[in-house]
Amino acid sequence: MDSYRELERELRHIKAAISMLETTKIYLAPPTIVAEPAYWRARLETILDGRPGNANIEKQVLQLIARTNRLGAPE
């Protein structure tokens, strides 16, 4: 149960970071790794590779990966 809670907390953190990047479209100066969608995508893929075995968690991860993909797409 604790690992599920930890995954939920991690996903809330990642979701907040992605939301910030989506709404502000900022890139920190000097550029930092956390301003890059690829950083967040890699963290999400690590969670997915761990196969949490929970359909809800996996669905959230896939939705967040899609959001990072849109962030990295040229406008």
Structure characterization notes:
By secondary structure, the protein is mostly helical. The chain has helices at 2-24, 37-49, 55-72. It has one domain (2-72). 72% of the residues lie in helices and 0% in strands. Helix 1 runs parallel beside helix 3 (55-72). It is elongated and about 35 Å long.
Describe the structure concisely for a colleague.
The protein has 75 residues and is an all-alpha fold. The chain has one domain.
Percent of residues in helices comes to over 70%
Supply Rg: 13 Å
Topology, number of strands? 0
- Mean pLDDT, as a whole number? 84
Characterize the largest beta sheet: strand count, sense, and whether it forms a barrel.
none
Number of helices: 3
Q: Which spans have pLDDT < 50 for at least 5 consecutive residues?
A: none
What's the topology here?
Blueprint: H1 2-24, H2 37-49, H3 55-72
Helix pairs in contact: 1-2, 1-3, 2-3
Primary descriptors:
single chain; 75 residues; mainly alpha; 3 helices; 0% strand; elongated
